[in-house]
Amino acid sequence: AQSVSQHNHHVILSEAASLELGCNYSYGGTVNLFWYVQYPGQHLQLLLKYFSGDPLVKGIKGFEAEFIKSKFSFNLRKPSVQWSDTAEYFCAVNADTDKLIFGTGTRLQVFP
Amino acid sequence: DTGVSQNPRHKITKRGQNVTFRCDPISEHNRLYWYRQTLGQGPEFLTYFQNEAQLEKSRLLSDRFSAERPKGSFSTLEIQRTEQGDSAMYLCASSLDRGGNQPQHFGDGTRLSIL
After folding, report:
1. A100 interaction partners in chain B (CB closer than 8 Å)
2. Which of A4, A11, A92, B109 has the fewest CB atoms nearer than 10 Å to its CB?
3. What pairs with residue A111 in β-bridges?
4. For an interface test with A, which of B59, B106, B111 has the most A Cβ atoms less than 10 Å from its Cβ?
């Protein structure tokens, strides 16, 4: 069965620090990969997605993620975080069907 | 883009009662999904529709749960004889099937609290 692991449950950073959130998935075939963000009191929003092609994908608000097939990873990065990036971040995958399999999420707190 | 709309936002009910939630997807989206999210967890897939056809249902879904999308537009999720363990946020998402992969757009969810 497909699964997604997010090893960082809670990350605390100061503004301007660099961010990397880990995401690993288990599935041997072709996958589509997503990062969603949930700001306090808001619904899940798509940050970026990977379907095929260039393994380095750029999303909204300066976020990017790199798909490394050999490591089954899709880590999220941002070179300089802002206070407004405080949110919960979810990695998700789908493969054979359209249903999304989500990780448990990473809570990011950014302090000014 | 009016977004995915879910009603009610919050439902409080006693154990054993039936509850029904509604989801209105983005108007041109023909795929509609239901997920459940509990505290500290990511959303968990429940079921999904393409137009009015229910294409997949999670094996974890109890027989007390039923979902419909009778006209291929809005959908309802009903839980019969609610239990404490049903307390969760119920999320609806929709997407457009263009023969390729399209991202899912989520609503604000319905929070169910069982007393």
Report:
1. 33, 35, 43, 45, 104
2. A11
3. A14
4. B106
Q: Looking at residues B51-75, what average pLDDT do you find?
A: 92
> Could you tell me the two tokens for B16?
């054993």
Please check whether residue A110 is in contact with residue A13, taking contact to mean a CB–CB distance below 8 angstroms. yes
Percentage of residues of chain A with pLDDT beyond 90: 84
**Minimum Cα–Cα distance from A40: chain B residue:** B108
**Exposure of B39 by Cβ count < 10 A (0-12 exposed, 13-18 middle, 19+ buried)?**
exposed
Nearest to B11 by CA among B60, B64, B74, B82: B82
Tens of pLDDT, residues A45-82: 999 999 989 999 999 999 999 999 999 999 999 999 99
